[in-house]
Amino acid sequence: MKNVVFDLGGVVFHRDAKKVRRELIDFFAFIFASKMPLFWEEYDRGALTFDEVLDELSRAKGCERAVAESYLREALDRQETIPQTAALIRDLKRAGYRLYVLSNMSREFIDFLRQSEIYALFDGDVVSCEERVVKPEPRIYEVLLERFGLDPAETLFIDDRRSNLEAAAAFGIKTFHFADAETSCARLRGMLLAEE
Predict the structure, then answer these.
(1) Is the separation of the CB atoms in 176 and 188 below 8 Å?
(2) Whose CA, among 57, 105, 122, 152, lies 20 to 30 Å from 65?
(3) Predicted structure pTM score
């Protein structure tokens, strides 16, 4: 294995449930559904602007637009690195792996996350809002492999959604389902850094 590809939300970054109010978690509960609402998928695709997604969000949640905006801005500001994954990324980089991002992410969120210290360790990224295609649509995996000249047999993709992993596996990419950070990062260390 030479290349390790990370999803972002729920794998590298999250809103720490211990640090945010229950109302915020409940407001965005749809993010954890097996299928995202269409308006959020289109936001990730770059087909809806921040203002347009606020209109959709306020309609979907039955609240004032200003309330939806305050929740969305708070959700953005509360994004932080998952410590176990950040440590794993640093160790993989030191061990010589090539590290990439493959993520469904809207413009505002990716601009915010790219400012983080850990993001600088990635060798490249493929982000849905810039490609106008979302996982698990096949084209986004083609872009990843083509852009960086990756051999699927030498590439491991880590994601917390099984549908995204199944789509990657169809290209011959090795996959890993990321569940809780502690267990998943320990298992990944055993797989990728066992010789250390």
Answers:
(1) yes
(2) 105
(3) 0.95
